Amino acid sequence: MTAHPPPNLMEEAMRWFGPQDPVTLNEIRQTGAAAVFAALHEIPYGAAWPAEAIAARQQEIAAAGLAWRVVESVPVHESIKTRTGDFERCIEHYGVTIRRLGAAGIRVVVYNFMPVMDWVRTDLRHRLPDGSEALRYDPVKFAAFDLCVLQRAGAERDWTPAQRDAARAFWHAQTEAQRRAFTQQTLDLFPGVRLGLEVADFRAMLARYAAIDATKLREHLRQFLAAIVPQAEAAGVRLALHPDDPPFSVLGLPRIVSTEDDLRAVLAMSDSAANGLCYCTGSLGVRADNDLAGIVRRLGARIHAVHLRSVQREPDGIFLEANHLEGSVDMPAVVRALLEEQAARRRANRRDWQLPFRPDHGHMMLDDFKRAAPACPGYPLIGRLRALAELRGLQKGLSRGIG
N or C terminus: fewer CB in 10 A for the chain? Predict the structure, then answer.
């Protein structure tokens, strides 16, 4: 029988948040995905992942007929970002985790270097005209959190007079229960984990950045990579840095992974292939000045994992999660660039020629409303199934014209 060549498409995956995820591995396999992006969310930030726990999770995933290709994420402890407290011990534990993942045969580790908040949304169930629900960011509502909840020193300077007035009007229109719910959802937006933060805890985390600007945070990232990249190289692991979400400063905090120039600066910190990128069209696509397809063409050799989603940019700084082939992201151009990057890797006989990708976020729709709440906002089953099917069809159509 004639052997068929490997497919030209990217490897399809879904994010899975572990045994507590209402979306099961069996359901993920039925979507057509071959792999998962997963992590050991039960391990506290800063602790080393036990080899036994890695092996057990790997076996659980394999038993469902799936592969654990990408770890998303091994969180970088706040002490590493600020280089305070026991940051040296946390870096040591991070290296141990990387070595153990490499020994288990897992080759890609996604991480981020966003201070305090992994990502920011203000509406977790924004109703769309077709009845489905999407994540949304409204700067006026986030200003209300900043001005009325945190009461952050200097916050007034970060918002326009119109935004400040609208934020206070929004806040005063909420009931006490609505205020508590909005505050808690903002404090809880850490993918896959609930840290149980109170407002006082959050203020304390912000205070650690009082003397850290973008230049200093960038230096802290460089020092982190200097310690971890050699260990990743030795373990056969490729690090994939996720962009800022959203790609601009929030709460006065520096953001250093928001533009193509930022990505170039990160890659220049170490020329090693182990120092790479997680390419997220949703995060980068919030900025109209980011040339998404161009970033792939220029930096694609250092992309190790891919998140595909689209956002709809609206006036006054609002953005929401759009359907994956709609919105402000030119998804066909992006996917074509990614498939061309894969083709170039195959011609160069790169062992890592095939890019793992997953649909990132999805709308709540259909029977998603009848299921238990997603493990993390933006990760329902059917909304992501629709996204994966659309992206699969787009890839197949485009791949016919790509060598």
Answer: N
Sign of CA dihedral 115, 143, 360, 271: negative
- Unique residue bearing structure tokens 């036990």: 50
Q: How far apart are CA 283 and CA 307, in angstroms?
A: 9
Q: Tell me the C-alpha to C-alpha distance, in Å, between residue 70 and each of 31, 167, 289, 303, 313.
A: 18, 40, 29, 13, 29
Amino acid, res. 50: P
- Residue 69 exposed, middle or buried by CB count within 10 Å (0-12, 13-18, 19+): buried
∠ CA 127-384-140 to the nearest 5 degrees?
35
Closest CA relative to residue 104, chosen from 11, 237, 230: 237
> In this structure, are residues 43 and 387 in contact, taking their beta carbons and an 8 Å threshold?
no
Burial grade of 50 (CB within 10 A; 0-12, 13-18, 19 or more) = middle
Q: Is 277 in contact with 233 (CB distance < 8 Å)?
A: no
Positive/negative CA dihedral, 285, 287, 290, 291: positive
Q: What is the pLDDT of residues 117-168, one digit of tens each?
A: 888 999 999 999 999 999 999 999 999 999 999 999 999 999 999 999 999 9
**Tens digits of residue pLDDT in 8-59:** 899 999 999 999 999 999 999 999 999 999 999 999 999 999 999 999 999 9
Q: Which long-range contacts (CB under 8 A, 24 or more apart) does 381-384 make?
A: 381/22, 381/23, 381/27, 381/31, 383/132, 384/14, 384/31, 384/359
What positions carry a catalytic annotation?
A: 242, 280, 307, 360-361, 379
